[in-house]
Specification:
Chain lengths: ~110, ~120
């Protein structure tokens, strides 16, 4: 199985900050990576797919990059609504696997 | 508007069975592959199973293989997950999710249904 490792596990930041979350795959997944945002008690929400393509309706302050084994999610200027947990997911190979999550909290 | 609505969760004893349903609307259900993803309380996301659009192909996580069965009724626009021989570690919120045609990122999710396995 492909292991997905996110860092950091928790990130403290302030409104207006630029933040980056990293996701590493245990083997190459080309660009078959998605990022999700999840708020407590809610289903995840797709932000980015194919490593860097913004899902329709997602604010442009979210961006993704990377290929192969290393990927990043960047939020250019944090907004109050962005404090949530973020997950990466690989869909290059079954079983589909997720990172363990990065909790973004208010500093 | 795409909607996925899960039902069938509840409390079951270890070794018991439960069948989850996911009612789909707002899209041509028979055209899309569907998945189940679960989330342990307070923990991360775990993919469980996938079924292709006509039900002829299924894939399972090793942790549920031989115990869970995914199926669908395209006439009723409904996805199912039959869960047998349930274990405490199967306790989770179960989501059904849809992927775009040809890809396996999840662009639509249901609200989830909680399954608790406990004596």
């Amino acid at each position: 199985d492909i292991q997905m490792t996110q860092s950091p596990s928790t990130l403290s930041a302030s409104v207006g900050d630029r933040v980056t979350v990293t996701c590493r795959a245990s083997q190459s997944i080309s660009s078959w990576l998605a990022w999700y945002q999840q708020k407590p008690g809610k289903a995840p929400n797709l932000l980015i797919y194919k490593a860097s393509t913004l899902e329709s309706g997602v604010p442009s302050r979210f961006s993704g990059s990377g290929s192969g084994t290393e990927f990043t999610l960047t939020i250019s200027s944090l907004q109050p609504d962005d404090f949530a947990t973020y997950y990466c997911q690989q869909y290059n190979t079954y079983p589909i696997t997720f990172g363990q999550g990065t909790r973004l909290e208010i500093k | 508007e795409v909607q996925l609505v899960e039902s069938g969760g509840g409390i079951v004893q270890p070794g018991g069975s439960l069948r989850l349903s996911c009612a789909a609307s707002g899209f041509t259900f028979s055209s899309y592959w569907m998945h189940w993803v679960r989330q342990d309380p307070g923990k991360g996301l775990v993919w469980v199973s996938r079924i292709n659009n006509d039900g002829s192909g299924t894939v399972y996580a090793d942790s549920v293989k031989g115990r869970f069965t995914i199926s669908r009724d395209n006439a009723e626009n409904t996805l199912y997950l039959q869960m047998n021989s349930l274990r405490a570690e199967d306790t989770a919120v179960y989501y059904c999710a849809r992927t775009p045609i040809g890809y396996s990122n999840f662009n639509y999710w249901g609200q989830g249904t909680l399954v608790t396995v406990s004596s």
